[in-house]
Amino acid sequence: MASRDIEDKRALRRAIDNGIACLTDFAGATGMRYRGDAFQLALPRTRDAMAAAILMRACLIEHSPSRRQMWDARIAIGIGEGTFPSSMDFVDADGEPFVRSGQGLDQLDDAQQRLGLFLPSPREELDLLVRFADDIISHWSHNAAEVVRLSLTTKLSQSALARRLERSQPTINRRLGAARWSLIEDFLALTRQRLETLA
């Protein structure tokens, strides 16, 4: 859904700000929201980039107002040489990762994707895996996104998740299954390993 069609833009901006705060805690990210609903983040560790992108999308989907109006974001992950910016000079950051992510965002628009990984040298096998993961995430419900967010940020067991959400363990298991969490976990482990070799 295009942001211009969203009725409660203040709630959307709040959800984006909450997602940025979540990523600050999760991965030490520095970032900002600008022009209302656009945002940009920098991460100190390359290996965390894909998990951070998935976490941000989970935060937005989880806080969507209804099934008919699901919030999501196009996220272009740019990898390259650069200096990690502080919050004070973030607005002027322009290293390789920022340039690559900006160019990547335009490519996502053309490809009708919501998630892309843009590396110094293209890796076709990673691009294909990212497209599969993107398709899975695009079909998450609020409940699936919620259990993914908690699974990423807390490492709670299914029984602990059930207690925290006041649901039964079979319900949590169904939600994780609907999110294809085991596949997403494997995908994150692989991309973390591959991205670490680029750092």
Give a description of the structure.
Helix content is 55%, strand content 9%. A hairpin with a 3-residue loop joins strand 1 and strand 2. It is mainly α. The chain has a two-stranded antiparallel ribbon.
Largest sheet: 2 strands, antiparallel
Rounded mean pLDDT is 90
Q: How many E strands? A: 4
How much of the polypeptide forms β-strand, as a percent range?
Answer: 5-15%
Low-confidence segments: none
Oligomer: single chain
Rounded to the nearest angstrom, the distance between the terminal CA atoms is: 35 Å
Strand order, main sheet: write it out: 1-2
Structural class: mainly alpha
Features:
about 200 residues; mainly alpha; two-stranded antiparallel sheet; two-stranded parallel sheet; 8 helices; about 55% helix; globular
Task: Detail the topology: elements first, then pairings.
Layout: H1 9-27, E1 30-34, E2 38-42, H2 49-62, E3 75-78, H3 96-111, E4 115-118, H4 124-137, H5 142-154, H6 158-165, H7 169-178, H8 181-196
Parallel strand pairs: 3-4
Antiparallel strand pairs: 1-2
Helix pairs in contact: 1-2, 2-5, 4-8, 5-7, 6-7
